[in-house]
Design brief:
- The strands form two sheets. The protein has a four-stranded antiparallel beta sheet with strand order 1-2-4-3. Strands 5-6-8-7 form a four-stranded antiparallel beta sheet.
- The chain has two domains: 6-134, Endonuclease I-creI, CATH 3.10.28.10; 140-233, Endonuclease I-creI (Roll), CATH 3.10.28.
- It has eight helices and eight strands, in the order H-H-E-E-H-E-E-H-H-E-E-H-E-E-H-H.
- By secondary structure, it is an alpha+beta fold.
- 39% of the residues lie in helices and 23% in strands.
- 31% of the residues are buried.
- It is globular and about 60 Å long.
- A hairpin with an 8-residue loop joins strand 5 (140-145) and strand 6 (154-161).
Length: 236
């Protein structure tokens, strides 16, 4: 049992009494665009989630913020970060940090070496689905390609991550839900900031309207920008 610190209790922070789909979704958000860490020098427990300010403000205010408040009792302060190149929130809370890392099992610090679907979620498939939805709403993407036509029409859903095992784990679950797509692959991209001159990520792509229809039926999106693309170009 985690006891709330005096500071967290005064702020109105609460911890979940049960594992819910909203909690699982938020964990997917942290697995995607989030970070959870402890800064020893400052004795700070920080939870941060940020996205693109150009097309994700609505997502943070209408989806992430309300769900965070529902699960943890407070609506995070949304603002620009990283010299206004990102937008989202930072919450400093030892109680939430401890809950997410010790009870749920999300990684602290550099997440990719140990990132995985939390074992607690395997007791209920709906929790896994909510978690994956959170991952795809942040690290995932849906696009419509022209292929042989003059306008975008052909849907592609993809996921990219620095963790091979995480991508493969999610891909395996989705294939068991009858989604059809090639196996994940390594993607090398030029990056002059790195010593090697490139970065390596892992991804898989889900193509076609049949897959999109099944995706929306079984997994779905909450992200307004993803849903807007489907509304504009899709037939689902």
């Amino acid at each position: 049992m985690i006891i709330l610190s005096k500071h967290d209790n005064k702020r109105g922070i609460t911890l979940p009494s049960e594992i819910t789909e909203d909690l699982a979704y938020l964990c997917g958000i942290f697995a995607g665009d989030g970070s959870i860490g402890y800064r020893r020098k400052k004795n700070e427990y920080c939870l941060k989630v940020v996205g693109n300010p150009k097309d994700e403000k609505e997502f943070y205010h209408q989806i992430i913020g309300p769900k965070f408040e529902k699960v943890f009792g407070v609506f995070p302060n949304m603002k620009y970060h990283d010299s206004k190149t990102t937008y989202g929130f930072s919450v400093y809370s030892k109680s939430i940090y401890t809950y997410l890392t010790q009870i749920i099992g999300l990684p602290s610090g550099i997440k990719y070496p140990t990132l995985k679907i939390p074992e607690l979620f395997f007791k209920d498939e709906k929790l896994i689905i909510s978690f994956i939805r959170g991952v795809f709403d942040t690290d995932g993407c849906i696009s419509f390609k022209k292929r042989y036509r003059t306008y975008p029409y052909y849907p592609t859903i993809n996921l990219t991550s620095k963790s091979r095992s995480f991508v493969e784990e999610i891909a395996e679950f989705l294939k068991n839900k009858d989604l059809k797509f090639p196996k994940p692959y390594e993607y090398k991209q030029k990056d002059a900031r790195l010593k090697e001159g490139y970065s390596i990520t892992y991804r898989f792509e889900i193509h076609g309207y049949k897959n999109l229809a099944l995706w929306m039926k079984t997994i779905g999106f909450y992200s307004p920008k993803h849903l807007e693309k489907i509304k504009k170009y899709g037939r689902v």
